Please model this.
Amino acid sequence: MKQDDINEAEWRNPANWSGPGRFGIYASKRDTRLWVPKGMPAMGFTINCAHPATTKVIVAVALLPLFLLLAQRLAS
Model:
């Protein structure tokens, strides 16, 4: 079985989704993708919370507005 097939099987497995239906949180250590389609793919993408890079992405997204505010204050 190729990794693409494993990723697809993991994405389709309801045990890897928590919350209301497929609108919840996705976590699968066997799925190598960081960004995966939401349960309804037309709704965009979500992050694979079991991926090793998830923490780094969440910290970066959280710190970005702070850095932008700091840069704006320093430029004034």
